[in-house]
Amino acid sequence: MTSERRPLIVGNWKMNTTLAEARILAYNIVHLVGVPKDVDVAVCPPFVSLPIVAEALRGSPVALGAQNLYPAESGAYTGEVAPNMLQGLCSYAIVGHSERRAYFAETDEFVNAKVRTALEYDLTPIMCVGETLLQHEAGETTKVLQTQTMGGLVDVEDVSMVVIAYEPVWAIGTGVAATPDDAREGIAVIRSTIADARGQDVADSVRILYGGSMNPQNVASLLEQPGIDGGLIGGASLNVEQFIALVRAAEERERE
Ligand code: 13P
After folding, report:
1. Ligand 1: nearest atom to the Cα of 211
2. Which of 130, 157, 156, 128 is nearest to 141 (CA)?
3. Helix or strand holding residue 29 (H, E)
4. pTM (2 d.p.)
């Protein structure tokens, strides 16, 4: 099945890897991944490793992404990184990851500012949405996904430029991925929310990834679900063999 939306496999290294480790991991990925067929691949190392990883990725089809950005060009924002510092270096920027929502109190409004800023600076935002375990058990998944999706896309003119990642919080780093049915249903909610607000064509053009304990064992069953356009991968992206296996699974899906 060849979908019009090109699959995307993104490694989110989170707060892992020293400079030396990041460099080795990037070189190993480049070496083993070759030229992925009909699949886009990106890695998002910690900020300090971006230049060294960019160097390792030079000439390879693997793109570079940041894990965050601040929605201002400069100023008194100690510890933050501005979009113009990332422009030209990165292709993607993760925004609104649940870890940032939970530990750094990021609101939908703030995530929305980051989405708009990323687009302004030629960075493709990978906007994360997802419900917590409590919300999941309370049957609030649909409501949460609708609110986070629409909240993040306020005043975004070209929604098709945004990548969305459905990351159920209870599936992140737990080893318990969402079932393929849950992942498909969550993504269907996100897509229909966009369709209602912006039209079906726009909704059909948006790439929506699944994230949360994706690994070589469960990847095929997740990617075979209609509407799942790839993965945002944490733990398994730190292991080169596992990460490459996920890229291969996405290639495989495109061949079927
Ligand atoms: P894990 O793959 O480690 O569950 O992390 C998923 C994630 O949060 C990617 O952004």
Report:
1. 6
2. 130
3. helix 19-33
4. 0.97
Average pLDDT, the chain: 97
Q: What is the enclosing helix (H) or strand (E) of 232? A: strand 230-233
Q: How confident is the model at residue 255 (pLDDT cuts 50, 70, 90)?
A: confident
Both tokens of residue 145? 């996904």
Instruction: State if residue 65 touches ligand 1 by the CB under 6 angstroms criterion.
Output: no
* Beta bridge pairs of residue 203: none
Nearest to 149 by CA among 95, 201, 229, 104: 95
Q: How far is the CA of 76 from the centre of ligand 1 (A)?
A: 31
CB 44 less than 6 A from any atom of ligand 1: no
Burial (CB < 10 A; 0-12, 13-18, 19+), residue 194, is: buried
In degrees, to the nearest 5, what angle opens at C-alpha 232 toward C-alphas 8 and 183? 95
Q: Is the shortest distance between the CB of 95 and ligand 1 below 6 Å?
A: no
Would you name the residues annotated as active-site residues? 97, 167
3-state secondary structure of 186: helix
Ligand 1 centroid–CA 75 distance in Å is: 31
Residue 233, pLDDT > 70, answer yes
Residue of the CA atom closest to atom 1 of ligand 1: 234
Interval 157-209: pLDDT, tens? 999 999 999 999 999 999 999 999 999 999 999 999 999 999 999 999 999 99
Counting from 1 in the atom list of ligand 1, the atom nearest the Cα of 172 is 4
pLDDT band with cut points at 50, 70 and 90 for residue 256? confident
pLDDT tens digits along 144-170: 999 999 999 999 999 999 999 999 999
User: Which atom of ligand 1 has the smallest separation from the CA of 175?
Assistant: 4
